[in-house]
Amino acid sequence: MAEPTFRESVDLMYNRAVALMDLPPGLEEKIRVCNSTYTVRFGVRLRGRIQTFTGYRSVHSEHMEPVKGGIRFSLGVNQDEVEALAALMTYKCALVEAPFGGSKGGLCIDPRCYDEEELERITRRFAYELIKRDLISPSQNVPAPDMGTSEREMAWIADQYARMHTTDINAWACVTGKPETFGGIMGRREATGRGVQYALREFFRHGEDKAEAGLSGDLDGKTVIIQGLGNVGYHAAKFLSEEDGARIIGIIEHDGALFDPEGLNVEAVHDWITRHGGVSGYHEANTVADGEKVLEEACDILIPAATEGVITTDNSDRLNARLIIEAANGPITAGADDILRRRGVVIIPDLYANAGGVTVSYFEWVKNLSHIRFGRMQRRQEEARHTLIVKELERLDQAMGATWSLSPGFKDRYLRGADELELVRSGLDDTMRIAYQSMREVWQSREDVTDLRTAAYMVAIDRVAKTYRAKGI
Ligand code: NAD
Predict the structure, then answer these.
(1) pLDDT digit string (tens) for 401-449?
(2) What pLDDT sits at residue 31?
């Protein structure tokens, strides 16, 4: 059977969910279709000749504005992919209650083939094409980083927008994922990986859900295989191993994989990849040339964090993980999803699992519009109130003849007011917990809903439908 395209896969998953819902006639189609896709071809003079590039910005749903979604730099970028990713953004934002419609952009380019100066010229030119059509704008369309892009590209885009809108006081809110020194927010770089960690922690808080995957206990000692040690994969692997005691036994990259049942040193591998561009030549673990084979090794948790369409009808029967968390967008095709569901593998779906990025992007956008750092007004006031309580406790202690004392370190920890990073983490943790609970409630309470993905789509589609109904469209 031919594998559906990425966009067809997303539509098939959407259709599974709406079949279990009661949407008014016509609304089902209105929500599913992509509103518009803009294709641009532009030339940049590089190395003595004009090179032509193709880029896209797709807007899936404008039921809320601005619309939001990353910009990807990759040779695999095409219209089908950008539309699938834009649709996922609509459902993702609805699921985590970020007040945005869905969008996505991409430039068909291998960023590794250009130096920094060339990339800046290409990025600024692409941004110019989108900005002049309001496809980048603080009030209408707000991109963020995705595969192949980072804070650096976001800073160029923000600066390009500011140059073209010299009197727009909210110019920096035209894009998120910027450097902290250029309108960014603490904790954005790590946000998607951090969100994967919070998602898994929440999953392990629910005994019934763990039992469905044949797992018990918490994350401590669980074996993990991760595909893609880029922004998302690296942070997820780092936090899960350093803070939760998970054992990363496999790391799959574009040029092969590393495998060690005793656990890999995530920092050392990441450092190697940064310096050498891949895992090849890393001698501290077994190297597997056919990296995708490592997807099939036995583990508790499999984390595809690279790209779409890596778990297909071809290999899904051979996977040996009980739980898969989709840190990447669309790593499991619709056909593979059917097979894995039948096999009882629990899948924490992309639209929830990697929503940490857009959640913290939302905080950054709010910060840019309010022109003030989170915590700036309250931090010292919070400290003053805490000091008052501690002093009063100490006074009572003295009055009672010093019969008890505060535990060591309590005073320092309690007195400190929350800074921006703590507030961002708290907001992200809360968002990931609440969104998980909203989908698990549907999963566990309805007999006809047998998986978390369908539940997640149902929650998201219901919210989008309610907005359309309230607007009277
Ligand atoms: P990235 O470019 O930082 O990292 C991707 C990594 O995957 C790279 O190390 C690359 O070498 C590796 N890779 C690419 N193709 C591979 C393959 N076939 N097999 C093994 N490894 C491969 O990208 P990222 O930002 O970490 O994004 C990864 C995924 O997460 C994408 O699906 C993206 O849409 C999704 N995502 C990213 C964010 C974000 O904030 N960056 C947010 C939500 C979702």
Answers:
(1) 877 788 888 888 899 899 999 999 999 999 999 999 999 999 999 999 9
(2) 97
293 is annotated as an active-site residue: no
Ligand 1 is surrounded, with C-beta below 6 A, by 145-148, 192, 227-233, 252-254, 291, 305-307, 327-329, 354, 357
What is the pLDDT averaged over residues 210-233?
97
- Output the residue whose Cα is nearest ligand 1's atom 10: 228
pTM assigned to the model: 0.96
Instruction: Tell me the average pLDDT across 306-328.
Output: 97
Give tens-digit pLDDT for 371-407: 999 999 999 999 999 999 999 988 988 888 877 788 8
Q: Annotate the chain with three-state secondary structure.
A: CCCCCHHHHHHHHHHHHHCCCCCCCCHHHHHHCCCEEEEEEEEEEECCEEEEEEEEEEEEECCCCCEECCEEEECCCCHHHHHHHHHHHHHHHHHCCCCCEEEEEEEECCHHHCCHHHHHHHHHHHHHHHHCCCCCECCCEECCECCCCCHHHHHHHHHHHHHHCCCCCCHHHHCCCCCHHHCCCCCCCCHHHHHHHHHHHHHCCCHHHHHHCCCCCCCCCCEEEEECCCHHHHHHHHHHHHHHCCEEEEEEECCEEEECCCCCCHHHHHHHHHHHCCCCCCCCCEEECCHHHHHHCCEEEEEECCCCCCECCCCHHHCCEEEEECCCCCCECHHHHHHHHHCCCEEECHHHHCCHHHHHHHHHHHHHHHCCCCCCCCHHHHHHHHHHHHHHHHHHHHHCCCCCCCCCCHHHHHHCCCCHHHHHHHHHHHHHHHHHHHHHHHHHHCCCCCCHHHHHHHHHHHHHHHHHHHHCC
> Which comes out higher in pLDDT, residue 240 or 1?
240
Marked catalytic residue, from 68, 92, 104, 367: 104
Ligand 1 center to 149 CA (angstroms): 10
Nearest protein Cα to ligand 1, atom 42: 357
